[in-house]
Specification:
- The strands form 2 sheets. Strands 1, 2, 3, 4, 5 and 6 form a 6-stranded mixed β-sheet that branches.
- The chain has one domain (about 1-175): Rossmann fold (3-Layer(aba) Sandwich), CATH 3.40.50.360.
- The protein is about 40% helix and about 20% strand.
- It is globular.
- By secondary structure, the protein is an alpha/beta fold.
- The protein binds flavin mononucleotide.
Length: about 200
């Protein structure tokens, strides 16, 4: 399976690497997991499942990720797709979760119509105020945002566990007799992954 990412400053790549590491840990030999930047030449057709993430700039994915998403919509068919966004506001508490839910909706407006990812999750990233437009800086500070590394690795791991549990190859590997029990640590086999 493919874990692809678009990043401007690197924090999204860190999350993609963590998701891939966790998937490898959980699925073992049942699937090969590769991590790639969302380059124009990246062809999703050779993968059975895709996880695609992007940094959020101005409430939208970076163009490289949006372009890959458009290609994936056409070529993935019914193979599963999971999406994640990496933003300056982390869903740490109910108030910020309201904000991040709205942000997810805004980001999804930029997704191609007809796209049906199994899940779309927002994670906090690394915030450096330098380079952020003034209006974005003010808006973000007004929401109680602070510079620094807001990545919640436990939340990333839980999300990856949910993906692993939903992979058909993992269910087969866990159940040679053919039943549908998931392999991954008691998580549900049915997507979407655990609550935001
Ligand atoms: C130009 C710019 C615009 C940004 N716009 C947003 C935004 O609209 N919403 C948000 O939550 N975070 C925003 N951020 C914060 C980034 O999403 C956050 O720093 C993220 O971790 C960046 O990921 P990266 O390190 O992979 O590039 C912005 C950052 C920059 C530099």
């Amino acid at each position: 399976m493919l874990v692809a990412y678009a990043t401007a400053a690197g924090s999204t790549r860190g999350i993609a690497d963590r998701i891939a590491d966790r998937l490898r840990e959980v699925v073992g030999d049942a699937a090969e997991v590769v991590v790639r930047p969302a380059d124009p030449e990246l062809d999703v057709r050779s993968f059975d499942a895709v996880v695609l993430g992007s940094a959020v700039h101005d409430m939208a994915w970076l163009p490289a990720a949006t372009h890959l998403l458009r290609r994936a919509r056409v070529t993935l068919g019914d193979r599963p797709l999971w999406c994640f966004s990496v933003a300056g506001v982390a869903p740490r508490d109910p108030v910020r979760r309201l904000v991040t839910d709205r942000e997810l909706q805004r980001v999804e407006r930029g997704f191609p119509s007809g796209l049906a990812p199994r899940d779309h999750r927002l994670f906090g990233g690394v915030v450096v105020l330098r380079g952020m437009p003034l209006w974005g800086r003010l808006f973000w500070l007004a929401l109680g945002g602070r510079p620094g590394d807001h990545r919640d690795w436990a939340a990333v791991d839980r999300w990856a566990d949910g993906i692993a549990a939903a992979l058909p190859t993992v269910r087969r590997a866990a159940s040679p007799a053919g039943d549908e029990r998931p392999a991954a640590r008691g998580t549900s086999a049915v997507p979407p992954a655990p609550g935001r």
